[in-house]
Design the sequence.
């Protein structure tokens, strides 16, 4: 056992497994942060095969009153369900050995605060890129009625790859629609220079417009290199409540006028004069980028710039993977489990998710901690017929299928919730009931099969419309029988319906992988033509165009009531008896409702149409 954790009093009752401590589904490796209310550890999620951050409430604070549980249970439940590539994910919540813990995405990278402190103020393109992506993530939360309430440079992280930005700590959020001000008795929360005028008056009065104000203040920080308001807490409060927001042009006269206008509207004193939703701010940035032909992206590192701080270096140093013998032993035991999707038991889940809300709130004050996305998985396995290429930004191993050149993503499998809830009025009867499904690991194509890949195997392009032809456009007008023949020639297979939905959801319990709805910036639906296979995405697994573009054939036969059968609950389920075959994902010709992760369609195996294609898979069995 490492000396650090062997003497850790918080984990004194957690069992030791070689050089790790075991808590819930996680092997803990090291402590990476501590505050007045909790401790954060870095570890390895055994079932998911990824690095995670595990936040533990200090034991002395764990005797939670029912009043506090009631206060947070609704918002915590939703916060855990919101998924978006620009938001830090919550994977699990639990209690063991007297410790209440929360399992979250672990992030390699640095916070905006760390980045500006290290490098100085941002270029216009970098500042717009960072806040644009943060607005996208925040919009997903706003779509679910969640207000963040603590947007600041410490809670926005730039990934180590500089390709993605993530918003951390949704835990200070509160459901807007709550009829009772459950937070009225709490002290005012937030970070003074990033608290909008209304938050100084009443914590419970902050809505989506407050998040927009804080994003504006963060944009100012990026462009100028210091907070917009300086001084003591009392001086900052007076300035924010009584004075206009500082004019950024006094420091940066080089800024485009349209960007200055966006910042001005974000930081209006009157909430009703601001953008009312982060989605509106996202669209405003789209227009800034278009009008000024700005090149979005995070600035490349310069050879002379300072390196990461010691704390950031520690967080970004790769961990040695747990020995495979330890992982295999734990995967077979009852000590670890995977919980993905909505809770199974309403009574107990409310308590657990309420504790999650308390944990995120209590531990959200841990300063300077970067939470990352999926760090690269170490020790990628060799798979016959495939060549390992790289680990994608989402932390999934990618392989090239040597016979076809198709790029495929390794998914770990596990247990997830498939289908739609009985009370979901937007769902069709064949999507119900929602039920738990357990899958073995498998590979699935990163993109829909392109016309170039189809011709390489089958010899003739079935796409007849000249304007829809292109090497990187998806193949369509293909029957199930033809797609099955393509897979058989290649040594691949069509995905089962369960594999397809697991891949599409990417651990999201929402209607879509990106949240409760889709915008035209993340999926191709209700349009006139298909788009290239690498156009929209990726989801949290690194897969593109799972929603929209072209329907995708699945291996299963279609039975309307299959989800109500015992067969649907077996490991690696597949409906093998039936005349029609399943189609998933919607298409460019369809509306949002047909593009949902759980939406099912069916056609006979000989059916062909201008919006029907596929992507192959490869089952790996138990690992």
Sequence:
């Amino acid at each position: 056992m490492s000396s650090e954790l062997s003497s850790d009093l918080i984990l004194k009752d957690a069992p030791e497994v070689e050089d790790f401590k075991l808590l819930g589904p996680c092997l803990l490796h090291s402590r990476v942060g501590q505050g007045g209310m909790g401790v954060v550890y870095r570890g390895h999620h055994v079932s998911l095969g990824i690095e995670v951050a595990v936040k533990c409430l200090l034991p002395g604070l764990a005797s939670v009153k029912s009043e506090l549980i009631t206060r947070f249970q609704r918002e915590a439940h939703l916060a855990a369900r919101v998924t978006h590539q620009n938001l830090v994910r919550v994977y699990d919540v639990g209690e063991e050995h007297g410790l209440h813990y929360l399992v979250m995405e672990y992030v390699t990278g640095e916070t905006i605060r760390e980045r500006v402190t290290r490098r100085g103020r941002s270029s216009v393109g970098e500042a717009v890129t960072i806040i644009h992506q943060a607005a996208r993530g925040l919009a997903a939360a706003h779509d679910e009625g969640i207000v963040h309430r603590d947007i600041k440079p410490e809670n926005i992280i730039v990934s180590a790859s500089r390709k993605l930005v993530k918003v951390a700590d949704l835990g200070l959020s509160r459901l807007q629609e709550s009829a009772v001000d459950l937070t009225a008795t709490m002290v005012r929360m937030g970070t003074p220079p990033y608290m909008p005028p209304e938050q100084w008056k009443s914590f419970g009065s902050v809505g989506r417009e407050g998040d927009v104000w804080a994003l504006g203040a963060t944009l100012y920080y990026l462009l100028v290199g210091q907070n917009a308001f300086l001084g003591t807490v009392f001086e900052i409060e007076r300035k924010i409540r009584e004075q206009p927001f500082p004019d950024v042009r006094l420091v940066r006269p080089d800024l485009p006028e349209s960007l200055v206008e966006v910042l001005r509207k974000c930081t209006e004193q009157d909430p009703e004069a601001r953008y009312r939703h982060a989605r509106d701010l996202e669209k405003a940035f789209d227009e800034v980028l278009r009008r000024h032909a700005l090149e979005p992206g995070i600035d490349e590192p310069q050879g002379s710039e300072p390196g990461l701080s010691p704390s950031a270096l520690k967080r970004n140093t790769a961990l040695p993977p747990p020995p495979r013998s330890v992982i295999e032993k734990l995967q077979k035991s009852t000590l670890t489990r995977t919980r993905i999707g909505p809770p199974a038991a309403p009574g107990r889940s409310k308590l657990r998710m309420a504790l999650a809300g308390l944990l995120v709130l209590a531990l959200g004050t841990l300063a300077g901690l970067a939470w990352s996305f999926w760090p690269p998985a170490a020790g990628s396995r060799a798979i016959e017929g495939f060549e390992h290429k790289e680990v994608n930004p989402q932390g999934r191993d990618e392989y090239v299928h040597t016979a076809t050149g198709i790029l495929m993503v390794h998914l770990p499998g596990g247990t997830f919730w498939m289908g739609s809830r009985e009370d979901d009025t937007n769902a069709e009867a064949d999507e119900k009931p929602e039920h738990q499904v357990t899958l073995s690991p498998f590979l699935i194509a990163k993109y829909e099969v392109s016309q170039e890949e189809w011709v390489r195997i089958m010899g003739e392009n079935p796409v007849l419309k000249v304007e829809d032809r292109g090497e990187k456009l998806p193949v369509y007008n293909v029957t199930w029988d033809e797609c099955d023949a393509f897979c058989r020639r290649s040594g691949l297979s069509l995905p089962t319906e369960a594999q397809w939905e697991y891949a599409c959801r990417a651990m999201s319990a929402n209607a879509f992988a990106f949240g409760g709805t889709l915008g035209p910036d993340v999926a191709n639906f209700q349009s006139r033509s298909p788009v290239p296979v690498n156009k929209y995405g990726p989801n949290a697994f690194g897969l593109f165009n799972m929603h929209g573009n072209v329907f995708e054939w699945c291996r299963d036969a279609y039975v309307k009531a299959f989800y109500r059968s015992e067969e649907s609950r077996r490991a690696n389920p597949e409906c093998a008896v039936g005349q029609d075959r399943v189609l998933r994902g919607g298409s460019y010709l369809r509306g949002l409702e047909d593009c949902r992760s759980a939406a099912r369609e069916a056609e006979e195996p000989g059916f062909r149409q201008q919006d029907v294609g596929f992507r192959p898979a490869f089952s790996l069995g138990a690992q």
